[in-house]
Amino acid sequence: MNHVEEKLRQSLDQRISEQSFRVLTIKNGLIDFCSNDYLGFSRSALFRERISELDDAHPSNTTGSTGSRLLSGNSSFFEELEHRIAQFHQAEDGLIFNSGYDANLGVFSCVPKRTDTLLYDQLVHASIRDGIRLSNARAYPFKHNDIEDLEKRITISTGNIFVAVESVYSMDGDCAPLTDIATLCKQFGAHLIVDEAHATGVFGVKGEGRVVELGLQNEIFARIHTFGKALGSHGAIVLGSEVLRSYLINFCRSFIYTTALPFHSLLAIQCAYNVLASDTEMLPQLRSRISYFKSNVGTDIRERVIESASAIQCLVVSGNENVRSLAHHVQEAGFDVRPILHPTVPRGKERLRICLHAFNTEAEIEDLLRIISSQLS
């Protein structure tokens, strides 16, 4: 083993000793309470059938994208899809990226400048943090969902001020106070950027997200909607003004220097939005399951549950070993629920993360809660 590999091994050994060593696992046939497939699109035979039908209607398109969008990877289908998605979310314009990670990395690394200030909720996703690291702007966190702390930060900020939040936080499942944040940003002339990854397809009349649900679409500088969660596809879109779209095409490295999404991915995205626009069952069913879960949480574990109106429900179980053990027992009972460990979450805030879906039954939810309760009692 050479010197570099020795250092790598030491880091891995430390993870093992802290009970935070990660490994890849294979789908296990358990009842799904862990995936982000909130509406069940990725497992839907009808969804696959619609993609296939749309594919058959475009026989001349290539299997691969053949290049970046600035070279050979662009198409009228690409641009029409962006326009349709922007309309759905009531935005002026949009630009599709290969993933939510690429979108956040690109926006936060290239839009705020050296003389600007970037304020971000301390619980924002790693993709936002990585984009911030690549930015030349001064960047400071503010306390999670704390309007007073954000206002203190804004009042001492200089240059153009950008504020980064998630509408629904992926590790807690709670919602940002978007109306208050948008009001504050407007008061101080700050530019609000909202990651809607876990709100897309879940909040809003048709799944447009929390920004549209709250009527804030004209108050937001940029929104990031991802397609790999409730929409059962892959990729993301940055929504904003036509000026923002043109700027990203010209200066965003994670857009410019990558191969475009292939045509089949675009078909899946379009089909997902077609279903969102027309379906009247899945979204109400998902909301019903969320309500059922919350109303059936027993008093014995209620104090462990992080308050959430989203499909993400979390039970705090302190300690990597403890939450791993609980997850193992739940999995042994047939339910796929995953532990979230330190360092992904703060030490002492380790948790069991339960993702609810439109396809989960009330009986499955009851059984899951019974198993968890029996292990914690």
Structure description:
With 377 residues, this protein is of the alpha/beta class. The chain has two domains: 47-278, Type I PLP-dependent aspartate aminotransferase-like (Major domain) (Aspartate Aminotransferase, domain 2), CATH 3.40.640; 281-376, Alpha-Beta Complex (Aspartate Aminotransferase, domain 1). It is built from 15 helices and twelve strands. It has helices spanning 3-17, 45-56, 76-88, 100-110, 126-134, 147-155, 178-188, 210-213, 242-251, 253-256, 263-278, 282-296, 299-302, 320-332, 362-376; strands spanning 31-32, 93-97, 117-121, 138-142, 161-166, 191-195, 222-226, 236-240, 312-316, 335-336, 338-340, 351-355. The protein has a seven-stranded mixed beta sheet, with helices on both faces. Helix 7 (178-188) links the parallel strand 5 (161-166) and strand 6. Helix 4 packs parallel to helix 5. The model has no long low-confidence stretch (mean pLDDT 95).
Helix content: 40-55%
Total count of domains? 2
Low-confidence stretches: none
Q: Provide the spatial order of strands within the biggest beta sheet.
A: 2-8-7-6-5-3-4
Taking all Cα atoms into account, the compactness measure Rg is 21 Å
CATH superfamily of the largest domain: Type I PLP-dependent aspartate aminotransferase-like (Major domain)
Strand percentage, roughly?
Answer: 5-15%
Please describe the biggest sheet, giving its number of strands, its sense, and whether it closes into a barrel: 7 strands, mixed
Task: Quickly name the level 1 CATH class of the largest domain.
Answer: Alpha Beta
Distance between the termini: 47 Å
Q: Please tally the β strands and state the result.
A: 12
CATH architecture type of the largest domain: 3-Layer(aba) Sandwich
Stated plainly, the CATH topology of the largest domain is called: Aspartate Aminotransferase, domain 2
Shape: globular
Structural class: alpha/beta
By DSSP (H or I, 4+ residues per run), the number of helices equals: 15
